Amino acid sequence: DTAVSQTPKYLVTQMGNDKSIKCEQNLGHDTMYWYKQDSKKFLKIMFSYNNKELIINETVPNRFSPKSPDKAHLNLHINSLELGDSAVYFCASSQLFGLAGGNEQFFGPGTRLTVL
Amino acid sequence: RKEVEQDPGPFNVPEGATVAFNCTYSNSASQSFFWYRQDCRKEPKLLMSVYSSGNEDGRFTAQLNRASQYISLLIRDSKLSDSATYLCVVKKIRNDYKLSFGAGTTVTVRA
User: Fold this and answer.
1) How far does the CA of residue A82 sit from the closest CA of chain B (Å)?
2) Residue B10: is the preceding peptide bond cis (ω within 30°)?
3) Model confidence pLDDT, tens digit, residues B7-64
4) A16: number of Cβ within 10 Å
5) What is the C-alpha to C-alpha distance for residues A54 and B7, in angstroms, rounded to an integer?
6) Residue B5's closest chain A neighbor by CA?
7) Residue of B46, B64, B97, B98 best to disrupt the A interface, most CBs of A under 10 A
């Protein structure tokens, strides 16, 4: 069974459109994340939710709006897509008190977004 | 200065060789350290945590040098399947949610 799943896997769209990416985890974790990995492969945190509450909100344009209907789901809606939004978006989940006092994060397979 | 910096490589090594690389972090208060592995067009996966005393997991050895603020990863007896990008990951506070990722070091093992 897939632990962290994302849909869609690929998304090609025109500038100015609005799109959503969905994420679900079946690990029973309390915390979920959205990351953006750009063409230089740098993985950057965007948002994090813990038990449906927003706990991390990095400097991200307000065109990006996360929504967590329950602790197993975290969706990302993007308004007015721009060329610079093209990247791979990864969802992840973790338990706070996990491995070695850290929090091993389990990643979804990624959504490859291309804005034309 | 970036929070976590890595030599991007690539490190091209023959099968059976040993390869080692470092990662530096800027915040001296950082508490937890990890190496993640990312295969081409795949998601990152935890390879190993890095403990203060250093630790081994099979052919992989991780070291932490707090004085100089770097961590290292050494791979012995490289296999073709070790070809990947290795991401250095740092957490500032023990029970913090946020991880800071380096841009990765690419290793290619050739036959």
Assistant:
1) 22
2) yes
3) 888 999 999 999 999 999 998 888 889 999 999 999 999 999 998 888 999 999 999 9
4) 10
5) 33
6) A42
7) B97
